[in-house]
Write a structure and sequence with these properties.
The protein is mainly α. It has one domain. 73% of the residues lie in helices and 1% in strands. The chain is built from 23 helices and 2 strands. The protein has a two-stranded antiparallel ribbon with strand order 1-2. A hairpin with a 2-residue loop joins strand 1 and strand 2. Helix 2 crosses helix 16, helix 2 runs parallel beside helix 22 and helix 20 crosses helix 23. The radius of gyration is 24 Å and the shape is globular. The N and C termini lie far apart (87 Å).
Length: 444
């Protein structure tokens, strides 16, 4: 039955791919889902070992194998069907050089806005960084937020900036790749430095989000670059895999920070175990979901509602219920967003599906106007839903809400620009008509 569901998911995706074109969001999510389903099938039969064996009990994985595969298949179904009706002509992965040149003005505007947002976040991040912990820390997930400045961070902007740093790592990396393709040298140098800082900050804390930088650079170079750029893109994919391997190894050591990176890099190249754990890390959401089904938690209505909130903690007060109401499988293993939805109940499952479908349909609307936002939104959607495999719902939905915000902002901006052009065009039309009438009178 499990194998049948895996192949049924694959066939459904292939049907929609042939009928409606290849799209980044459902492609990435379906492939990850299939990988997780295959992994949990092998794990339940004790064919392979898993790196989290000392963290969770595999009894739940074996007992809830079928339920887990069904859940992941349904996620693939929502991801694929939310794009039905989308013409392949608008797929960002098929963007030609001619399309890129034709949209250069829009891409220049994207670069300007995205870079300004990145610089604003960077200023907050640098201002509240504990540089000694940034260089060398002791505990995984300790972070580099300077707690001594917490009294000055009354509204929580600094702590929020640290929690949102993976989002801005994504935005800055995309802006850097865009600057390279557009040939903007000053932007490329400045944004390259900012992207490198975010990358090293994430990697030094052994966060797998460090892989976003090379992944997005590869996506931009492959979508808009020439043949030589695509070769560099393939190299960046290797850097992404290396980054995840360093993060996987380093989180189990007692050293965090920039000072730990040389040792981490040496171990990854001399010891093959971090690479063997890479597959398990990608598919760990399946294990986390299966284990969570053994529990019977009771979430408060406030925690449930705030898990859907698009606002940061300093606005909606989520921090007040985080430590009292959140259910974890282990000190280092939170309950996944899919498991939380399962225990929230059917109305909230439907609400989550509607939010994701809404985000996908808005992304479809943007694709006709702005290729770069289309690529970014596809990445954010994939990341957000995949995040719900491994992390709480609120963590994954941050990226989904950001995707919706970018789509609405892009649509409103383009409509406003179109509205400005219309009066100018009609005014020119009157002027031309008047000139023609006068010419006719003179001719007579």
């Amino acid at each position: 039955m499990t194998i049948f569901l895996i192949f049924a998911t694959l066939l459904l995706f292939l049907f929609c791919r042939i009928s409606y074109g290849l799209l980044p969001y459902p492609t990435g999510l379906v492939l990850v889902s299939l990988f997780c389903e295959g992994f949990i099938y092998l794990l339940s039969d004790d064919i392979i070992a898993f790196s989290m064996a000392d963290v969770v009990n595999f009894g739940g994985t074996r007992r809830n194998e079928l339920a887990t595969v069904v859940a992941f298949s349904l996620v693939s179904l929502v991801a694929t069907l939310s794009y039905i009706g989308f013409s392949r002509n608008y797929g960002a992965v098929s963007a030609s050089v001619a399309e890129f040149i034709g949209n250069r003005a829009i891409l220049e505007t994207n670069l300007s806005y995205l870079s300004k947002i990145s610089f604003a976040h960077l200023a907050l991040y640098l201002g509240f960084t504990d540089w000694s912990a940034f260089w060398c820390g002791s505990y995984y997930l300790e972070g580099t937020y300077n707690s001594r400045l917490a009294d000055y961070d009354v509204l929580g902007f600094g702590s929020t900036a640290f929690r949102l740093s993976p989002m801005f790592l994504v935005i800055t990396s995309l802006s850097f790749g865009l600057a390279i393709v557009l040939g903007r040298r000053i932007y490329s140098v400045v944004l390259g430095g900012v992207a490198l800082f975010y990358y090293l900050a994430a990697l030094s804390q052994h966060s797998r989000s460090a892989a976003f930088t090379p992944l997005l650079l590869a996506a931009v170079l492959y979508s808009f670059g020439n043949r030589q750029s695509r070769l560099f893109g393939a190299g960046f994919l290797g850097v992404a895999a290396l980054s995840i391997s360093i993060a996987v190894y380093g989180r189990g050591t007692s050293y965090q920070g920039i000072c730990a990176l040389p040792d981490d890099l040496g171990v990854v190249f001399t010891d093959g175990s971090p690479w063997s754990e890479l597959a398990g890390q990608i598919a760990q959401g399946a294990v986390v979901f299966a284990e969570a089904l053994q529990l019977n938690p009771a979430f408060s209505i406030r925690y449930t509602l705030l898990s859907f909130s698009p606002f940061p903690t300093f606005i909606d007060g989520f921090q007040s219920v985080l430590f009292t109401d959140q259910v974890r499988l282990h000190d280092y293993v939170p309950m996944s967003g899919l498991a939380e939805l399962f225990f929230f109940g059917l109305p909230f499952i439907i609400a989550a599906v509607l939010v994701v479908v809404c985000a996908a349909r808005l992304t479809m609307m943007v694709s006709r106007q702005n290729k770069m936002i289309f690529i970014l939104n596809n990445f954010l959607l994939t990341l957000g839903v995949y995040g719900c495999f491994c992390y709480p719902l609120r963590t994954g939905f941050r990226f989904v809400w950001l995707s919706i915000t970018l789509s609405i902002g892009s649509i409103l901006f383009i409509r406003r620009a179109s509205a400005r052009r219309k009066p100018l065009s009609s005014h020119r039309g009157v002027a031309v008509g008047g000139t023609g009438a006068r010419s006719g009178q003179i001719a007579h």
